Amino acid sequence: MRVLLMSTPEFGIPTLHALIEHQYGVVGVVCQPDKPAGRGLRVTAPPMKREALGRGVPVFQPASLGTAEVRHELGATRLDLILVAAYGKFIPDAIIDLAPLGALNLHPSLLPRWRGACPVPAAISAGDHETGVTVHFVVNEMDAGAVLSQATMPITGHDRTPDVMARLAVLGADLYLATIEGWLAARIVPQTQDHTQAVWCDRMTKAHGRLDWTQPADVLARRVRALDPWPGTFTPWRGAILRIRDAEPWSAWQGDLPPGQVFCTADDIAVATGQGALILRTVQAPGKRALPVAQFASGRREFVTAVLGQ
Question: 188-229, pLDDT tens digit by residue?
């Protein structure tokens, strides 16, 4: 079995490890090109590239998969099967046709729920109590291919997107191996998705991080956890952006303050919301490091009477 793995971020690394450890022939890894990152915009290799090179696996980083040159280069690996795990780009039929066994994708949701680019932030934001991974065929429509297998996992009330993604990556690697074995042995019958039940999640932008204080506190707290680390959550304050790095809902609070009003209790600093209050734990001013909210407020007395979001 000669496998070509198409993956860019950390999510695919457990799959690479599992394939190598179970002696699959990983003929190469295809990931996106190096990109500028960080404050200095230093050109940085994606996590999968660094891991693959460290394991002695050839790496391909085409700017586009649509050229004859790329198709020839990948075809020269004599691959049997393509496995995808968060590659991040559309894969044309001309590439899929290189693999006699086709292409499978590992998607971090329980399809058809949360098709699209940000399934884990969407699941946390929506208050889902469980999520999972799905192995399905790659087709022309995003995340719409027939399903070969799924595995579920709970979402706790403290989980952030990186926590869930890390656990799903390990769960997915195990599921990938079991699915390949079962499918090739004809023990798995692919199941067509019920497209009428599909729920979509769009790619996140910075604008999605702005908190609307008229929403309930539990919704805002889930959003803080879901949008960590990207794009992060924030609120306008004094003409600048105040980032909310950590917060907890106080759903039982029933004060009569307007949404966005900061107030103090005996132990905490909180913000009134449309229902309940959001207890702030860690905040970050522009150009500064993140601080516990009490330390942040100690040098800014006006904060404890501020109205955020204006």
Answer: 999 999 999 999 998 999 999 999 999 999 999 999 999 999
* Residue 267: closest CA among 293, 244, 249, 243: 293
- CA torsion sign for 26, 28, 33, 34 is positive
Domain boundary among 201, 225, 250: 201
Find the domain containing 267 and state its range.
Answer: 206-305
Domain boundary among the residues 179, 201, 223 is at: 201
Task: Tally the domains of the chain.
Answer: 2
β-bridge mates for residue 282, sequence order = 246, 292
Give the angle 66-71-77 at the CA atoms, nearest 5°: 150
What's the DSSP call for residue 65? S
Q: How far is residue 103's CA from residue 192's CA, in Å, rounded to a whole number?
A: 16
Cα(92)–Cα(231) distance, rounded to whole angstroms?
29
Q: Are residues 10 and 27 in the same domain?
A: yes
| Structural element, H or E, at residue 132 | strand 130-137
Here the tokens at position 179 are 């699915």
Same domain, 178 and 223: no
Q: Is the pTM of this model over 0.85?
A: yes
